[in-house]
Amino acid sequence: MALGRLSRRSHLLAAFGLVAVFFQTDVTAKPRSAIVKSSRRQKNRYLQVLVRDINGKALPNAEVIVLDAVLKTPLSGQKFKVNKQGKSMILVRTHPQVALMAAAPGKESQTLPVYWGKEYTFTLRQPRQKLPALTPKAERPITIIPAPPIKKTRAVSVVAEDLDGKRLRDAEVAVLEAESKKIVLRKLLINGLGSFEIEKDPGKRLVMAAIAPGRLSSVKDLGEQNNYIFKLRRRLQEGRIQIVVRDSDEQVVKGAAVRLNGGTIQLAAGKTDPKGELDLKFQYEEDARLNMEIRHPDYRHLKQDVRLKVQTTFSLQLKPLMKSYVFSVVVEDENGGRVRDAEVSIIEAGTQKHLANKLLLNGLGTIEVQTRPKSELKAVVKAAGRERLVQKFGREKNIVFKLKRLSETGRLFVTLVDERGRGIRNAHVLLTDGTRAIFISKTNVRGQAAIKFEYQEDSALRLTLQHKEYKQQQVVVDRAAIDRRTLEVKLIPLKMTYNLSVTVAGEAGENLPDARVAVRQLGTKRVLHEESLRRGRGNIKVEAASDSKLEIVASADRREPVTREVNGSGDYRFKLRWRVERGRTSVDVTDDTGKPLARALVALTDSGKRIKAIQTDAKGRADLSFLYTGASQLEVGVKHKNFLPAAGVLRPDTGSVTIRLKPLEKTYLISLVVESEKGERLKDAEVKALDTEHEKLLARKLFQLGIGSVELKAAPDANIELIASAPGHESGSLKLGKSKSYVFVLKRRMLKGKVAVSLKSSNGAKISNASAIISEAGRELVRGTSDVKGWTQLTFQYSDPSLTTLEVIHGGYQTRKLPLRPGRDQSVDVVLLPRRPKVKSAFLTVIVLSKTFTASPKTYARVRSGVEKILSDCVKHRGLWAHIGMVSLGDGRTRELLSMSSGVDGKKVKQVKGRLSDLYSQAGTLSWRDLNSLAGYLDKTGKVGASGCDILVLAPKNLSMDGELSLYEAGGEPVLEAFRKKNLRLRLVEIGVLNDVTRAYRELCEGTQGFYKTLLVNDSLPKAISDLQFHFPSPPPPN
Asked: Any idea of the CA torsion for 937, 939, 941, 944, to the nearest 10 degrees?
């Protein structure tokens, strides 16, 4: 605002040629370049402020306000509170028109002008004490000229308005001496009107000048009247814009009407040339809002705002006016028949853009397209065996396309021979194409016929061959035959037909379902017909020459075949006998433990009749040789004096059989009780019965309530031992005698254990406040908590080491449970993995460069060291995140150090570390606009899915923002909405010399489900950054 007033003051004085005089009398004594170059971009700088009383004690409740040095009014939003030490870091514009005012309750305020120094100290006194006025160093002494003895004072009212009578805001009026060009008085008219008192020397002529933003100045003589009205005209500027208009297909649009408006007034208009370009020159008011409208009958209307300070060249894109058309399409051949499987493509002729493609299975269908009303359309129609058709058409609803056949000329030499290969003369040869005859001929004496014909690719060519002594035949002429040009066909002579009814049965008259019948010629044994009879009977039709003799052969599996001569049509019955076969097998006899048994009797029976018997040798084997038929029912039986007999079915094709014999056994039924020394029944007790002589387990049973019965079988003279056991108790044994009930009393087994547990994360960091629980069979024995070194020592008592487990629980890590084999002074190292989200998300690291970082190489090295540690951990644990990236903010730019990638290796990390070193010279700060650009950057990469992205931002302390302002008051709500929309979780770390919390940033992090942290600049900064573990999905330590 101050620079704007300087600019208006320069225009005001320029109206009288008084610019140089005004600079000499300016109380601020600004350099000439500060006004002449008022359009230069203003830069900001930080100031360190200290407020104390006259005793040097800090005033924590003081406030510092930035004032306009000329108007002595506070600047908007430039109000800062000091901390408990009475200090505050504020951000001001670096020009000499600013002053600082400090105020505190119960103290008199103090104002200091702002020069180029960075530190300002205020000493506030009691209200009744007055400090002498401070004269800025840059001010020059003002020479006061004594007024003439006679002056007249009067009040003057001034109104500044436009030509329509509307008052002009922020107008400025000045009274000057006409001859010396000296400014007597200057007044700012905030609402376009105001009044002031002026002392006028009768001997001097005064003039009054008025100026307003975007208006031409006006000058009037200061006469005797008290009211003055200034009508100020707008100041027009020259403007020029260049426009290129294209459509959505990047084709230029000529003849587009362009109209440039300034509010409701048309400034310029024109139409684009054949290249789609237009150059407009115009005049406009400085504060006018410009926009342009583009119209074309074939495209949608477009309206575009124009900001000449931002852009003067425009590349605009018009969307065509699209209309939907439905065409009914029929594809026919030359005769009006529909062509099947025709493919129709609709193309826009001008742009060659494919609008639709459809396959018409029956040659008929509808096609819908969307195109511009005046565009020219063409269709490309294709079908198998048809010529390709390209045809333009209009907007008629019914369209018929005619496709011609692809015709070729073929030659074919046909030779007809009999069974001996001799040519057959005077045979009729007819070539047809589906429904019509193409060629008719007869064979010559050699049985040959030459054919010449026209055909299409999809023609179904057939040869019909006829002769009075041979069967009529039809032969398909395929493409291969046409290419060969020769075709030889063997005609089958006319033969006699035999109708045979065949029945094949067994010796008992049963039909054989697997019977097979073959009809063959006598002598040559050539098979004319062969068939399987599913039910042992069937009807067979055989053709043969009248002078040939035939025979029927009936056969079946494992039956003797039977042959009979054929004496014409009729019934033929066959009875087939079983075929006798020889078989061999080996029988191995063992007891139930697999031990071979000698001198066991092995008997083989057929349908209950014994056909062979033999004893086993010393190895328990008996080899059997026997005859059998398909009707045989073989069984093998084994007997032994000390074992129970056994028998089984024997398959003739089995090479060897093993038969296990069970010994003669006695059944024992006993009742058992398992209890402790206190007489309590033990749950989940287990009882085993063991044959001690043969070391054989006879029975094993679990008693859930400690009581039950067991049934077992053993030899009458067997030595049986009963063994009982229970969890946490010592086992006991008893000999089985004549009693039917037994009681086991088991002693409890107790052991002492001592375990030292060490807890570390996957990256080697020690884990504190983790719970270590030792349990036995689900019962908790002891619990402990790890110290700051990740250690805890547990002492406990247990009974069963196989049921002892160790479980480690921590809120930031995955719970781990593992079996424990306790022993004295045993130590266990447990590595915990951080909790991972159910869906892997992306991770982005952002470093914000500023003077706070780059003012000292040591400070920047500390920050860079912490960032490099994060990169190294991301390489080591690359499975934690779906994508990882890194950017830097500084100097008003966003630099991509590591693009969003699904895999980060050591080579990429080395490249990023080099880029970090190159960024030392950059500087900037963190703003809401930077956070919005980050959200846009992630949206542009396309790597952030439904799981969102975790963003770690390392930023300097923002001293320009009031730390007590809420997110709403600081204007950060749009950033919160952008982050929530893209599921972005902000993890912000503020680094600086003060440890104050910025409320707006903390509310932004909490609103995005992220974290907020502040760190101090010191030697432990790299370790503090790495200890935060923001690169793992675990919560950081509290601030």
From this structure: 120
